[in-house]
Each structure stands twice: as structure tokens, then as C-alpha cells.
Amino acid sequence: MNVFSLFDYLASVDTAQAGPAPRRALLRQLGQAAAAALPLGLLSPAPAAASPLASLDQLALLLRLEYTQRAFYTQALASTALSLSGSLRDDVTRLQSQQQQHIDFLNQALRNSGVTPPTPAATYNFSGSRTGSILFPNALTTEAGFLELAQQLEDAGVRIYLGQLSLLTADRPLLGGVQRLATVESRHAAHLRTLRRRRGAQVKGWPSAADLVPTYPVQFTTQATTPASTGTVYSGEATEQQFLSGYRQVPFTALLTGPYVVQSTAIAEAFDEPLVTQDAMSLLNIFSA
Amino acid sequence: MLLSSWASRTLRRRTFLRVAGSATATAGLALAGCSTKDPEPTTTTPTYALTNNETGQLNYCYLLKQLQVAFYQKVTATVPTDLTGADLATVVDLRDHEIVQQLSLGYALGATAALPQLTFDFSALPLTTRAGVLAAAQTFEDLCSAALTFSVPFLTTADTLRFMLKIASAEARHAATVRDLLAPTTLAAPDAVLSSGGPLASIATPADVLKAIAPYITLAVIDVSLLPIA
After folding, report:
1. What is the ipTM of this complex?
2. Is B167 touching A (CB cutoff 8 A)?
């Protein structure tokens, strides 16, 4: 099922004056809210209650992200050209299995809300040719090419989670559970960077102005600028503007003096930045329908 | 020093930190009768009770950042001789990120509501070798990542949550990076990717976190019993 047609359908049923109640009733008609135990007893706290409809779009997008990452690792492990072996193969196997368990979590969260979770795409194409040209020629043929795309996908995953997490506030227990997935995503991303660094790539454990830009960058049309422009996984990561509640901007220059002087790259590095939903979708559209 | 009453606390519109002093048991000595021994000087250890609101929650994060800044500042002030090159550069990066995050939280809280600058004592940790430094760094990074993973979702102001999510994410990267510095390059142990060994990140309640870090906090007691846990 195409996840976005599901929500188009739900939106069309929802009448303007009705508010949230009829949508919830519709969701209950789609299926029983399952009180099933979660796979492997992973979840604490469990999203046993039905989530507001507002949460479901976010879960569906995160599920699509996880399906994409799982597919990449699965294809890499199966690739005879790549022929992963030794500790790298062990690492990728572990990464793949953790993505699978994230998929299980997200599927269960959706089922608990009475929704049939969206299924993975029929195919995932990591050469980038869905866009009309081969964007990642070595993604499944050389170790360096594989790791470079893996790093970008994991860094993108971190940013996509950040974007969706702040939209999950209607269901606090669910937010707590998804946060635990997001923390794992951040650990994955840092670990991929370590793997590349051990093989001579000039990258830190976090997006940095000191990183060498990818040879084959993931690029998509971003709505973050007007007019729309080409964004990468790292667009906006170099920002030194951080805003607190009440539109207060953190005055880094004034604060970071005396014993708190830091390297010039530190301000931007200290914060990971979210990717908005539209950009997340544009990015994932590179690899699947 | 007066102790605030619990009842009056809940009536306040805005709660601030209160410092409650507690006198040590010098009364016993005073009742010892005609002793020629000089009375012990009274000491008071300030207790900071973190309140069940955004101020308290941010102060909790601020406390963790103070701890990590103090730790990394100590390490970079006296660098072990076998901590060099790229590893040292990474530790300096970690320190600088924690400084940026600590200062941001202090600014967010404002001078009145923020915890004071606490003092820390890491002399119990073996910090004279690369291995000792990285082991301690990993302990603190894993602990703080688990703490933020657990506590950040309780923030209710949208902009504050958005801000702290970024810091929680950076902290997780720290934890994995330090773990990788310690891990052998050829083995992929079950916990090579995650300290928990599993697909859901470890979490730690404020009570568990304070139990772990209290030994390093000098001259102050932090009470986290009011922070949300569900």
C-alpha cells in the first residue's frame, strides 16, 4: 500500500467541521487497537494506546526511512561485487538487524493505533538511476562507495528522525519510544563515520565543516529555500544560529570567552539539525517510489 | 537556613531553585557536656531541588553538561602522554561541544534560574593514560546519552524540545565515537554499535544518573526526585 494514498484517503473522509473525533472512529473501523506484546519485549513504555492521527504520518515516514536503510544493507550483504567480509560484514549485519527491529517497533506502533502499516516498496535502487542518471556508481561495488552512501543515509536518518520527533508531542510515551530509536540512529551515523575514517576518509564523528564533502553526494530539491534549490544531506548543518523558546537566539560570541573559548567549528558541530518532512520525502524518493 | 515547606511550593506560579541548608549533627557534640575539646565547625552542604517544570528539567541537562565540561577540561589540562594526534583532537572536539552546549543551557535558563557553577572532583578516576581517559569518557557519554534519551521527551515547550533533541543527538554521536576509539579495530563485539547491545538505546532515570555522578560532585547535593519519570 502506498502510505501517502492512505492518508489522502483519510483526509478526504475527514470533514472540515468534524474535528478529530470522526477520524479516530474511522481508524477504529480499520482495525482493532492491538494490545499485543511488542516483539522481543523491546518496548518500554509500550505504545499500547491509540496514537492521535497526527502521529501516524510521522511513524509512516520513519518506517519508510527504515525500510530504505534495511534494503541498502540487505543489498550490500548480498552483493558479490562488494563481497563484504570480516569485521565490516559483521558490522553491517548488526546494523541491518537493528534497522529490522526498528521496523518491528514502528509497525507495532502503527498497528496499536488501528492502522495497517505501509509495506516496503517493491524495489529500492541505490544507484540513483530513478532520478534519470547514475548518482552513486560504486554504492554496491566498492567498499569506499558503499560506506560513503551508508554514511549519508545514516546522517540523513538522524536528521529525518529529528524532524519527525518534534512532531510527535501529542503522544508522549510514543515520543519516548521513538527517541530511543533516534538515539540509535545517531550512534549508527557516528559509527559509519568511524568506519570511513579508519579507511582514510577525512570525516569526524559528526557533520563538520572540516569533513571532506562526499564524492557522490545525495542531492535533492529542497523547499528550505525560496526559490527551491538543490540540497544535500548536510545542507544547514553548518548553521551557527540556535533559537530557544521565545525567539531568543543563543549569543555564542558573547558566551564563549575566557575559559570557554572553543574551536571555530565547534558551534555548528555541537548540534545536529532536523530535516523537514518535505525534504525527507524528496531524499527518500531518490531510492524508491 | 529555613527549609521551604512542600505545600507552599505548589502554590507558586513560578518555581525557582531553593537552596536548603542542612546542619550536620553538631548538636551531639554540644550536648557532650563539659568537654575540653573544641567544638567541630558546622558545615552546610547546599541542596538544590530540581523542580518539576521546564526549569528543573533544563537544570538537570545543565548539570550533566557541567560535569562533562569539567571532566574534559581536566583531561585537556593534563593530557596523558599516550593520548596524541587524532585521538587527542577528538577529545578536544568533545570538550568544545560540551562547552557550547553547557553555555547554551545556562543562557536558556538565565542567571536566576540556573544552577550555580558546581565543582567536581575526578581524582578517583585513573586519568593518567589514554585507556583510563577514554574509559571514563565512555562511561560519562553513555550515561549522559541514556539520561537525555530518557528525559528530553518530557519537555513540553516545542522550541525547547526541538533544541534539546539536537543536543541529545549530538550526545549519542559522542558516545558512539568514544566507544569506537576504545574498541579494537578488527573485532565487532555485540556492543560495538550500541552499549545496550540492542536496537533501542539505553535509558537512565534521573535517580539512577544522580547515583552514578554524585560521587564526582563536591560541596553540593542535587535532588532530582521531582523530575518526571512517566
Report:
1. 0.84
2. yes
